Amino acid sequence: MRGSDAASGALFSYVDMEARVPVAHPLRTIRTMVNEVLDALDTEFEALYEGTGRLSVAPERLLRASLLQAFYSVRSERQLMEQINYNLLFRWFVGLGIDDAVWDHSTFSKNRERLLGADVAAKFLAAVLRHPKVTRFLSDEHFSVDGTLVEAWALLKSFRAKDGSDEPPAPGRNGERHFHKEKRSSSQAAKLSYMGHALMENRHGLVVGATLTPATGTAEREAAIKMIVRRSPGARRLTLGADKGYDTKNFVADLRDLNVAPHVAQNTTNGVCAIDGRTTRHPGYAASQIIRKRIEESFAWTKTIAGLHKTKHRGVGRVAFQFVFAMAAYNLIRMPRLLSTAA
Fold first, then answer.
1. Is the separation of the CB atoms in 150 and 212 below 8 Å?
2. Sign of the torsion formed by the C-alpha atoms of 40, 41, 45 and 46
3. What pTM did the predictor assign?
4. 166/164 Cα distance (integer angstroms)
5. Which of 107, 144, 184, 190 is the most buried (most CB within 10 A)?
6. Of 192, 234, 228, nearest to 210 (Cα)?
7. What share of the chain is helix, strand, coil (3-state, %, to 5)?
8. Torsion over CA of 319, 325, 330 and 331, rounded to 10 degrees?
9. H or E stretch at 157
10. pLDDT tens for each residue of 214-272
11. Where do the domains of the chain lie, and which CATH numbers do they carry?
12. Radius of gyration of the chain (CA)
């Protein structure tokens, strides 16, 4: 018998949203972990708000919604609010009831601004790494580091000579800027970019440190030193894998002073290499050179899925928040499979 296509409205719904989400859905594992991480940050959140005044959007809901934006490649806050409004899975994950009103996109963005000044993204990543379900997968001895360019939300007209000898663009919202007869130092396409840096542990390829800086010739090595120092090597000897860009005399010497074995790829193009047989003769060096390439997986995910191929924010602070938070999201999205495999 043919079924009816007639739509019948219902005044009440007797099926709870919790029951609508499949038991084996990977977001269930992630949501449980995220809620425990947010509970651990409750003191940090409490310090951000006054005791009186109009209620803001809860920081826990801001962060859960931002995770969904990264997981599902939602390109804007406006579209994210639209999705939360009609997508029951999104409502359930954020913590909204089926009848709760969804915020305006500008309200959401304005409330999230408060989290930027408190370095909440870095604290969230650290809390994720402290979670018992995550720590069991982390190595505390072997690491890899690398950097990636994050294209800025800026026109090529924003390019200026380092010595300030060029002319600024013409006045107006979209003033003309001519580069004719200006000498280029490279044949590659020029892009205005920030540089994101990640420190990965080598056991399962999880990101244990992330930061973002202006893109300079020394930014990668400077960020690597700061991130590996936070691992507090002390008397324990650590290893740090890296590509040829890190093969400089000063960087290798700094690592050895920190009791870190420099498993850096040898740069033999200019005839000056800081890595010698003292390092390359060990089997661990070859292993680090293979495993270190996995860090590119985190960069690929943040750019293709989490929307960091070209940032939509302006300023180092906002872009750094987005980059570090995306690395925390990358760790979380991998946890359901890691936990099921280890079970």
1. yes
2. positive
3. 0.89
4. 6
5. 144
6. 228
7. 45, 10, 40
8. 150
9. none
10. 998 899 999 999 999 988 666 788 999 999 999 999 999 999 999 999 999 998 887 78
11. 17-49+56-118 (no CATH), 131-156+191-324 (3.30.420.10)
12. 24
